[in-house]
Amino acid sequence: MKTWGLGAALALALCATGTTAANDGQTQEAKSQDGSFTGEIVGTADADSKFAQLQIGMSMQDVQEILDRAPDRFHTYESGKRWIPFYFGNDATRLQALFRGEGCLIFTGGNIWGGGGSELIQIEVDPSGDCYQP
Prior knowledge:
The chain is α+β, with helices and mostly antiparallel strands. The chain has helices at 2-17, 60-67; strands at residues 27-31, 38-42, 73-78, 93-99, 103-110, 120-125. The chain has a six-stranded mixed beta sheet, with no helix packed on it.
């Protein structure tokens, strides 16, 4: 019983620390460009940074034009919405992209058939790149 309590306490401590050490720890919600959904911005970008020009709801193509490059690394994963019966939204899968020297971006990856997606839903300012967790 004592071992379980120690393990649970350690797990809670690890979850509580998260990746906030990589940024200033400020998380704010932001409306998408068209106002149809809210996204999340973690950290604060420098005013002269290209990340400061990004907005929730932008497409991957718009982001690459602003940043003037493709991501350094990226991967896709299934969100929990993937397993909701008859869910037809565009975020059953997600794509996380690392832009070295700036941070990480998360885009909707589309529905379970591959349609839709490519909307920016999270901006994480982290020049160290520790935000990227494949």
